[in-house]
Amino acid sequence: MSRSEQKENAPIKLDKYLENNNEHESKRDSRLEYLLKRAELFSHFVTNGTKAKNAGKKGHRNKESAEIKPKRLKKEDGSFELPVSDRDEVKLMQYDKTPDYIDGEMRDYQINGLNWLIKLCENGINGILGDEMGLGKTIQTISIFGYMKNVKKVDGPFLVIAPLSTLQNWLNEAQRFCPSLRAFVLHAYKKDRPKLLKRLKEPEDWDLCITSYDIALKEYHKFRKPKWQYVVLDEGHKIKNEKSKMNEALHAIKSNHRLMLTGTPLQNNLHELWALLNYLLPDVFSSSADFDTWFDADDCLSGNQTTVNRIHVILKPFMLRRIKSEVELSLLPKKEMKLYVDLAPLQRDTYKKVLLKEIKVIKGNGEVTYAKINQILMELRKAANHPYLINGIESGPPYTTDQHLVDSCGKMKVLDQLLAQLKAKGSRVVLFSQFKIMLDIIEDYLVWKGYTFRRLDGDKQIEQRTADISDFNAENSDVFIFIITTRAGGLGINLTTADTVIIYDSDWNPQVDFQAIDRVHRIGQKKQVHVFRLITEFTVDQRIVQRAEIKERLDRLVIKSSRKASIKNEGENHKDVLLDVIRFGADEMLSDNKSDVNFDLKRIMADAKSKEDAEKARLDGMTLEQSSSTSVYQFEGFDFRAKQPVAAPSSTATVSETKVLPSKSNI
What we know:
Layout (H helix, E strand, L loop, with lengths): L2 H46 L1 E3 L20 E2 L5 E2 L7 E3 L16 H15 L4 E3 L7 H14 L7 E5 L4 H11 L5 E4 L6 H6 L9 E5 H6 L1 H4 L4 E7 L10 H7 L3 E7 L8 H11 L7 H7 L2 H5 L3 H11 L3 E2 L3 H4 L7 E7 L3 H13 L1 H5 L6 H16 L18 H4 L2 H15 L4 E5 L2 H14 L3 E4 L5 H12 L7 E5 H4 L10 E4 L6 H8 L12 E7 L3 H19 L16 H9 L2 H4 L11 H19 L14 E2 L2 E2 L4 E2 L9 H4 L9
Parallel strand pairs: 5-10, 5-11, 6-8, 6-9, 7-8, 9-10, 12-17, 13-15, 13-16, 14-15, 16-17
Antiparallel strand pairs: 1-4, 2-3, 18-19, 19-20
């Protein structure tokens, strides 16, 4: 074909492309309309306590699959519409008091939760029990198993997949509240596992199997064989990545009903929410691309009420969410205070040295790799937590445990005063840190100070873990403080004998910290719970907290008000996100080295409210993408890439106006 002929055909091809694109958009809009109508139909049966006359009868649903196959009428344009339904409706059994098959008393909202689960079960709908942590999702789940066994006369089999740390609690709760359920835990080392796995072939001898995510993944081909009545995922957000092997394995385990338990259904972004819904209702939520187009996190965060309302409509029939302040009136609301801490002189020098150390990489040609950026970020996080976390900073050998552990770190100076104050008034403390090596330093400090403590991290064996928790919770226990790595102790433990939580350093994901706090602030807590969050001001530490708060705001908009916000699904591992975190601090530190440092706890507490209000006002309405900061190489008013001072911004400048965007030559 000649060049002139190609030019003549170009507009035709363009028109065809636009026509196809418009047709695709039209079908996508039709699918959204169908989804909204489908949600409305589900809501009718779930809300009104009725079920379709043929629900649960033979042939109503494929018992080998958890997928709902709604009848749809396809129109000529390729879109779908719901058929007109004239099915009769049948009233469901609903409870107004604790069922006879449950030993003990359920709270009113837990009975309402059981009634909601019955509605889902009878109408063949899978769902998310998204109650806030500490409201008894376990007892509500056990009660629906009891309903199936004692009322519906269905002996299972039922399967619960849960974090390892919660397996024993699940077994204890099942035996305590519903003795008629024959339950066992399937978890063992590889050499002992075949004997337990053999029990899966004999479901007539048991009703409930409780296993861990690790075993479910390793032995998923064995779990595929039984014809499960119910599969329950405790802490179901573990399958938020639809591309993970775990997600794929759990999709392969078929059942008549699926239920997901999570107090944090929205952790990072809306795409992860789709992954949860896709597991529960794969036919209804089949396309992640469509979901991402319909529901943009930026729209929610920037105040687009239409998008927020659409999400509420769609989530309503599939998710039940209650929060403690609304239903557990005997539990006092927790009081949280953010303590903004200055860098100690040694910390400040260490922080700068980390930047100076990377000048050659920073100034080099070409693009910096993710691995290098992540390494810089980790070193800065260590410097913000304690300079001794970086090799070569602490003097020695010999290494000594004395006052220098406190004097070399701003957070430790504040923690030293705070613990003394809490000890004097008889409080008991649980402290969380992301870093096991940080707990090593804190442990040395506690030994030096003579404070009694227990420690829990990922290396702790289950037997010792259980013993330490029992020691801490024992009546008249003399253990003052429990130090825990956030990821190891954020689930499955009850520490309501404490009344104070200290978050030494925050997680990228706000829900992880909330889970940790709820080890103390939960049902059974009779004291006022105080939470102190330590934040090293104008460092990556503060930036991580800011990003976590924006994510938590997305959770409030989408989940809590409906009873990623990592935009464009970049996730926290994306290099640009990490660069943004490292850049933070330049706008606030474009001045000479700070000399007016403050480590007095009373002054820090007095300033906490005003600083938190100012931070909230600055972040209000901001998305993660809009919250970019300044150059990675600017700190304390000095550009470490160019090795020269930076001009301070005007008082009216905004974050976007003052940021220094790195060019390709210096990224």
